[in-house]
Design goal:
By secondary structure, the protein is an alpha/beta fold. The chain folds into two domains: about 140 residues, no CATH class; about 170 residues, no CATH class. The strands form two sheets. Strands 1-2-3-4-6-5 form a six-stranded mixed beta sheet. A two-stranded antiparallel ribbon has the order 7-8. Strand 1 and strand 2 form a beta hairpin. It is globular and about 55 Å long. It starts with a helix and ends with a helix.
Length: about 325
């Protein structure tokens, strides 16, 4: 078992040790199972509603593994206290997790996941929604003007975290990002700045994937100077996330630049200049420079990965298994 496997196994062991059995929900009489995940001093309360004991245990094990993927990506759990609620649903949507959302209205940030009643453990472990929603815990609430920044971060890390955990291979991860960028381009119509597209009809794919392009560019800019996006976000979570400004995307990116300068006082700003360019953009961002650095090339609708040693090393540093 590798280091990541040991960490996830430890999380599951703590979950099983701290968890209570299923009990009736006071409001609806549905079975309710509550267990606690522990990541160092951080605690995550996980509630499964509407599942029998065996099914609840399987859902707890699944979300513990996904949470372990996110924690391993950043080297820490971002919040001291958080909650995850899993509800089973009958849905015509073929996705094993038809819907997820994150709420910051309570002191303990909450993630709600709706899981198909007939979703198999294998289907759940292969899916991305839970990873996406848990990645949202790394940033503060960013408001409508910053929705692209929030959804872009979660979209980028839904791929990065799953690749590093070995749930998808490196090539599949880059193809998934490339396909997302293609969807974003198709959904982009000239005339609207990205920061204004948060609730615009038909702009969802642009919001998610133009946002992901921002974070990819930021990650590459940091790696060119010996830093990583993972480390900057982890440092921000440690010092500043709990008290971050509400609904202020500019304050968030300035804080990220400030956190980086704490480690390297000579470091030039990365996040704010990129933010200003992307937020006002009325077209999908060009990724030509990023693709060149990564050795990625689209040919006849297929993504090709070059054999250049430097490009391959950079791709592996971002998406390679841990």
């Amino acid at each position: 078992m590798n280091a990541r496997g040991v960490r996830v196994a430890a999380v599951v062991a703590v979950l099983l040790a701290l968890g209570g059995g299923a009990r009736a929900d006071d409001a609806a009489g549905a079975p309710r199972s509550v267990r606690t995940l522990a990541f160092d001093a951080a605690r995550v309360e996980v509630e499964v509603v509407g599942a029998g004991a065996a099914r609840a245990a399987a859902l707890h094990a699944w979300i513990a593994a996904v949470a372990g993927d996110v924690e391993a990506t950043f080297g820490r759990w971002p919040l001291a206290r958080s909650r995850i609620r899993i509800e089973q649903v009958d849905s015509g949507d073929r996705s094993p997790v038809p819907w997820g959302q994150t709420s910051r209205q309570d002191p303990a940030v909450a993630v709600l996941l709706y899981v198909r009643r007939d979703a198999t453990p294998a289907a759940l472990h292969a899916h991305w929604t839970a990873t996406h929603e848990l990645a949202h815990l790394v940033h503060p609430y960013l408001g409508e003007d910053g929705r692209w920044l929030a959804e872009g971060l979660a979209s980028y890390y839904q791929t990065v975290a799953r690749a590093r955990a070995g749930r998808i291979d490196e090539g599949e991860a880059w193809r998934a990002l490339d396909a997302g960028f293609a969807r974003g381009r198709r959904a982009t119509t000239a005339g609207t700045a990205l920061r204004e597209a948060g609730d615009a009809p038909g702009a969802t794919m642009r919001v998610y994937w133009a946002g992901a392009a921002y974070w990819l560019e930021a990650d590459l800019a940091l790696r060119a100077h010996g830093a990583t996006l993972d480390a900057v976000l982890a440092d921000h979570a440690a010092c500043c996330l709990a008290g971050a400004a509400w609904g202020d995307p500019l304050a968030f990116v300035r804080a990220l630049d400030g956190v980086r300068r704490q480690r390297d006082p000579s470091a030039e700003a990365v996040f704010e200049p990129l933010y200003r360019r992307h937020a006002e953009a009325r077209a999908f961002p060009s990724l030509d420079a990023a693709y060149a650095a990564l050795g990625l090339r689209s040919e006849a609708g297929r993504l090709r990965l070059s054999g250049d040693a430097d490009a391959a090393a950079l791709r592996r540093a971002i998406m390679g298994p841990r």
